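Table S2 (text version). Query chain:
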Amino acid sequence: MRFIGTTSKNKFNPGFNSVAPDIFNVLHEIVIVTDGLFYMQNANSYALKILNYDLPEITEQPLKKLFDDQIFGSLLENIKAQLSKSDVAICTDTAITTKQSVKIPINISVATLNQSPLQYVFVCTQIDELQKLYGSFKSQNAELEALNKRFHEQEIAMLNLLEDSHDLSVQLQQEKADVEKKVDERTMQLHAEHARLEASINSLDAGFIILDREINPFIRKLSL
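Corresponding structure-token output:
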């Protein structure tokens, strides 16, 4: 990646005059040219519009004018380290500051120019719209995950309910069987007691009759 930039007097190199200024100014990216000490030498029209500066306001000003003091030191060290090994340095998820101190999220690509004096070109790509889309995606994804979680919880609750219902049905069937068994056992006991009672009555010499509530003979013993 190579850029042909401007001289320290803010004039494009002669061999670049016919094409580069037009390309430089129609780019919808924030493009800033600095000298080797990272003092700003030029900026394209889009950069001046977005940052709300006039070119004289930033010319010969340090690049850190456009960045937060807390991040610029580490950002510059990162760029220098990359440029010591490559012609291009890339820094992502940082921010550039407008004249009104509004921070614009950007990714930065920095290229070394091939002429003397040494210059750098900073191409800053705005990522605020991308961040909004990503934020929207994260929000929708979180909502979907919440819906899936609620569905899973409802599914588990339903399974537990069915399992409880099955357990209750088994329990009721067992209780019914126990009751029926007890009824059968009590019926057999009553039949046995009735038989013993009849045997005892039949062993008596006197005769008598036992009536039920409707005055019907229930047990009858005739005397011999």
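Notes on Table S2: The CA atoms of residues 10 and 188 lie 118 Å apart. The mean pLDDT is 77.
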